[in-house]
Amino acid sequence: MDKRIITAAITGSIHTPTMSPYLPITPKQIIDEILAAYEAGATVCHVHVRDPKTGQPITDLDIFREIATTVKSKCNIILCLTTGGGLGMTAEQRVPPVTALSPELASFNAGSVNFALFHAMEKWKEWKYEWEPEYLGMTEDFIFPNTFKTLRQFSEFFEKENTKPELEVYDSGMINNIAFLIERGHLKKPVYLQFVMGVLGGITPSPENLMFLVDYAKRLIGDFQFSVCVAGRAQFPICTQSLLIGGHVRVGLEDNLYIEKGVLAKSNAEHVAKIIRIARELGIEPATPDEGREILGLKGLDKVNY
């Protein structure tokens, strides 16, 4: 049977505590969610951290280290640490999870994008924390900056730590950015692409758009593995398409708070279990963490710094 990488994006930096009571906030909650996703069959967990008191996205190395060390002591799941951080953070604030902890895998945003969340405010009138409406509202005038200078600098940090970049592609021009970085020797093939669909400011999720992205990457890059993550209701349909055409998938509460129409997911494990049920109906098995390491050519859990 085909083996595919199933990633669970545990908490992210998009959704806020008002939006779901099940969004993990504290280190213990995030650890528990990672372990539950692992038990459900996840290959990788993508990790952001939050202020334990307010739920606001932060980059706190002590919390990253606490989560990573605890998880490593209990299972062998691959941890993909974020360098996206929270909206408005500088590149210097975003990169320490790689430089300090030397993970096997980390996110690497492949270009700048209008990253808009302000429209989500229309659904809520009252908020648990004062920071939430301010955080969301400022994105009407926000660009998530990933310039060619910072792309080059990030690639140097990743290479020094032998951390595999998970290249986040929000729109088709970012594929060209990656091809340029490869041509200049800043990235080495085979690369690992993650097509991020459904963020306002990036490409919309549709079967046609996913096929276009894959075809464009084949023409410009040629040698790559790819995964798909989708914000919102199109998550499971487009992730199913990714499985059908040979790709990997990402699910989880970072991307979608619901398990089905009108029903909040109570955990990331529910997302993982659902996509694995779908995969097995198609004759596809989830890759174990060690199989995922082989597929992506990762350095191994014994070479991380946590």
Q: What attributes does this structure have?
A:
single chain; 306 residues; TIM Barrel; 20% strand
DSSP E strands, number = 16
Strand proportion, as a percent range, falls in 15-25%
Radius of gyration: 18 Å
- Summed up, the domain count is 1
What is the typical, i.e. mean, pLDDT?
A: 96
* CATH hierarchy, class: Alpha Beta
Count of alpha/pi helices: 11
Write down the secondary-structure element order: EEHEEEHEHHEEHEHEHEHEHEEEHEH
CATH topology: TIM Barrel
How would you classify the helix and strand content by structural class? alpha/beta
Widest sheet: strand ordering: 2-3-6-7-10-11-12-13
User: End-to-end distance, in Å?
Assistant: 34 Å
Described by strand count, sense and barrel closure, the largest sheet is: 8 strands, parallel, barrel
Please name the fourth-level CATH homologous superfamily: Aldolase class I
Poorly predicted ranges: none
Question: Could you please describe the fold and organization of this structure?
Answer:
- This protein has 306 residues and is an alpha/beta fold.
- It has an 8-stranded parallel β-barrel with strand order 2-3-6-7-10-11-12-13, surrounded by 7 helices.
- The chain has helices at residues 27-40, 61-74, 91-94, 96-101, 131-137, 148-161, 173-183, 207-220, 235-244, 268-281, 289-296, and strands at residues 2-4, 6-9, 44-47, 49-50, 57-58, 78-81, 105-109, 113-114, 143-144, 164-169, 191-197, 224-230, 248-251, 258-260, 263-264, 284-286.
- The radius of gyration is 18 Å and the shape is globular.
- 38% of the residues lie in helices and 20% in strands.
- The chain has 11 helices and 16 strands.
- The protein has a single domain (2-303), classed as Alpha-Beta Barrel (TIM Barrel).
